[in-house]
Structure formats: structure tokens, C-alpha cells
Design a protein that fits this description.
Length: 279
Amino acid sequence: MSEKDESDQHRRVLVDQVKSNQRASAPFAKTWRSYCDSHGDGFYDPARHSTQFLEDFLKYAAEKRGGSKDDESSSSCRSRSPRSRRNGRHRTRHGRRHDRGRTRRKGRLRRRSDSRSRSGIPTRKTAIKGAERAVAAFTKELEELKGISDDSEPVEHSEQPNQDLQLSRWRAEVEAERAAQVSEAERKLQEEKAARLKEAEEKLDQAIAERLQEAEEKLRAEVHSRLDDAQRHAEAKVKMFMEDVCPKIESSWAEQMKGLALKARDARAAVLHLAQEAG
């Protein structure tokens, strides 16, 4: 196995170690994000960093873990003094309200920064700082190259344009890398904003659909209730009408039957009269 293959294998082992430690420990992941913001241009993917960067971070994380354990053991031995407890009990209402407001603001800022870091998107400030750091490194290299060229033997006049061309090319590359980092950060921010806006629209549509369904069910129940009331009212009216009309109809039929009986009696009398005259 060549030296290059061994170096690549060692780098893959370091990348896997950082990833597994991030999944296993939330403090380790938080330390990794903070270290990348400070020294890694805000890129949280371990595969985007060099072997030296990963080794330095693991050393830094081990030292920080050891220091945090010592701090926790020493802080657990300390206790609050009676005076501090007494001062805490006698805090004014205004002070408690002020502390609560400050705690809420800190919580919102912490949640915002945590959501930004969980999404894997470097902030605009971090990306700009990384680009500025890269520009400073290239500038330092250029100054060293200039110093070496000034201290060395004088070169021919024909080589000066090539050096100027190389310097301008390096500057252009640095500016292009900086612009690419800034544009990448802005693109990721826009994508995250669009995703959150789409999620908010979906939640709004769902809430509107639920409200419409509730309103429809309420309106349907109200319509059924009104129909039942109207049907009962109509039945009561029909019943009252029948109670009022039936006696009138019966009395009319009785009068008609009485009239028919009188006519039948008159007809029988006339028939008898005719029969007597004929006899």
C-alpha cells in the first residue's frame, strides 16, 4: 500500500470517527459545530476538511472533555453561600421580570442558532469570516513569495509580467472562492426559507380545511334542526286546521242530509197525492 493510500485511509477513519461521535454525543456535536464556525469556514461535513484539521479538532475535543469533567467535579463540590441565597430570595419583582425577559431572549437566540446549525448551513457571517480568512492566508503567502523574490537574486525583466499574472490569477481565484462561499450560503438560506414557507403554507391549508369542515358540519346540523322545527310547525298547523274544519264539514253534511230527507218526504207525499187522485 502506497503512502497516499495510507493517508487517505487514515483520513477516512478520522471522518468516520467524527461522524460517529456526533451521533453518539450531543456535546461533541456542539463542540464540532463551534470549532467549524471558528476554524473551518462554517462547513460541518467532516469530509470537507483535511486530515490535519480533523486531528487538531479531536485533540481539542479530548482536551475540552477532560477540562469539562474537572470543572464539573469542582463545581459539584461548591455550594451557594447563605448570603447569595438570601440575596436571591430578596430579589425584587422587577428584577425577576427583567431576568425572565432576558432568559426568553437568550432561549430564542439559542434555538435559532441551534436550528441553523442542525440544518448544516453556515451562517452568512461565518461564511464571510471564512472567506476573509482564506484571503488573508493567500495574501500572506503572496507577501512571503514577494519577500523571497526580493531577497533572491534579481530576475530578468521578462519574468516580472508572469509573476504579476500569477498574482492576479491568485487574487481572482481567492475572490471567486469567497463569492462562491457567500453565494452558496445565500442559496442554502433561500432554500431553507422556501422550505419553511412551504411548510407554513401546508399547515395553513390544513387548518383552513379543518375549519371549513367544522363550519360545514355545524351548518348541516343547524339546517337539520331548522327542518325538524319547520316540519313540527307544519304538522301542528295541519292538525289545528283539521280540528277547525272537521266540525264545519260534519255540520254541513248534516244540513244537507236533513234537506234531502225533507225533499224525500215531500216527494213521497206528492206520490201519495197523485195515487189518491188517480184512484
